Amino acid sequence: MSQSKRETERKYEPAASGADGLPDLTGVGPVVSVTAAGPEELDAVYHDTADLRLARASVTLRRRTGGADAGWHLKLPLGGDSREEVRAPLSDDVPEELRDLVLSRTRGARLLPVVRIRSTRSLRQLRDAGGTVLAELSLDEVRAESLRAGGGHAEWSELEVELADGARAALLDTVEKKLRKKGIRRSDSPSKLVRALRETGQEPGPAPHPSPGVTPGSPGSYVLAYLREQVDGLVALDPAVRRDLPDGVHQMRVTCRRLRSCLRSYRSVLDRRATDPLRAELRWLAGELGVARDQEVLRERIGAALDLLPGDLVLGPVAARLRVWDVSGDDETRTRTREALASSRYLRLLDALDDLVRRPPLRAKASGKPGPVMAKAVLKEYDRFAARTDRALELPPGPSRDAALHQARKAAKKVRYAAEVARPALGKPVARLGKRAKAVQKVLGDHQDAVVAQETLRGLAVAAHAAGESAFTWGLLHGREGARAEARQEEVPSAWRAASDPALRAPLTH
């Protein structure tokens, strides 16, 4: 079973080696005392694909012995000074769970030992007035050896400051200010692996760039920049979804929608003969993820509503029945999600998306002026949104209107996403349009959630009745969701009037 923790650290070039390289930080900020620990002898073998895909993505996978945390360590970038470290027990081969967590980067390529790094570590613990460890200051004497043909050896010293769990990130800035006064500067290598690869002559080359035919400042450049951001996001979210982290499924599903919407809205920029098959595959993936997300939303919504009820209105084993419903549905949806991410179809999709941003199927308008091309794409989605909303509001209350409002909600999302792509080119006018569309989408989203919740609550009431339990509480919650759906319907016209103000569209039509 793996464990994970957030790791926040900075690396520096020490002014000296050995104990002389560890500056005294007593009295720096909240640091009241400094205690010595160690020394430690650490021995780590880093694994990667033959073409160093993990290193290129700032991901490290190592098998380390020595120290208090011997075992397998997978470090995933979180941005800034932080990384998520996933640990697994020591074994001879890469643990299957860690192999799965890097699959979106390796695409199934074989993982091989690439570098061995041995370190002699001198350690100091920075403590506050209560004796709590705030951070660790370590000096490593590093010896790196390439494990690939033609690689070399390297040695260096490295100073590292790592925050303890729960410590304030501002401490790093306070410590760095002190280190600078002592002539100690930040290292230009974010990790030992990066430096080892560089100094042993096997640094990975830069990631492949998109087609050199893309003109800066053109519609094609803006669309491809957005697509590249979303593709990178999809790959980065994969480990979170596999680990069932909160909001991971939702974020990946939204990323799929953004990609699909961009490919649809900007058909004038990218050839749909190449992008339509990708849209179909993204729809498949979003559908597989959607089951898990829908379950999550319903669980939170119904659970919160149940918690708000007075105890005398909760009749029968309501909480137990809700848990049974949640567990049975959750197991099924997680299995479906895991199977989708383990499939060759999913890996082919990731490869195809990479190929799209590297070799985009550009059309003639991709190299034109961005204003007319991108404004037209946004306004086309807006017109579709307007038509669906007007049609829904013309229908009488009931299932047909509920379905039409759901379609209007989907159209509102497409306006938002098209506006996101165009914002770097068109600025505030398109951002305002997207913001108004989002306001309508929010009202319609709560309406749709209430409609879906009603269906689920009816099913729970039927099951309770069949088991000889009281269905009163389920019926009460069902009624409240119905009232909430009606209230949201009443809000739609005013939200739509704000979004349909001609002044919003005017700057995009010139």
Helices and strands, with pairings:
Elements: E1 3-13, E2 33-48, H1 53-56, E3 60-65, E4 71-79, E5 82-88, H2 96-101, H3 103-106, E6 112-127, E7 133-146, E8 153-163, H4 170-181, E9 185-186, H5 192-199, H6 219-242, H7 248-265, H8 272-308, H9 318-341, H10 344-358, H11 370-394, H12 399-426, H13 428-466, H14 472-499, H15 502-509
Antiparallel strand pairs: 1-5, 1-8, 1-9, 2-3, 2-6, 3-4, 4-5, 6-7, 7-8
Keywords summarizing the entry:
alpha+beta; eight-stranded antiparallel β-barrel
Radius of gyration, Cα only, in angstroms? 28 Å
**Strand line-up across the major sheet:** 1-5-4-3-2-6-7-8
Average of per-residue pLDDT values: 92
Contiguous helical run count: 15
Q: Roughly what fraction of the amino acids lie in strands?
A: 15-25%
Question: In words, what does this structure look like?
Answer:
The structure is a single chain. The protein is an alpha+beta fold and 510 residues long. Helix content is 55%, strand content 18%. It is built from 15 helices and nine strands. The protein has an eight-stranded antiparallel β-barrel. Helix 7 (248-265) packs antiparallel against helix 8 (272-308) and helix 8 runs antiparallel to helix 9 (318-341). The protein is globular, with a radius of gyration of 28 Å. The termini are far apart. The relative contact order is 0.09. The model has no long low-confidence stretch (mean pLDDT 92).
Summarize the entry for a quick read.
The protein is of the alpha+beta class. It contains 15 helices and 9 strands.
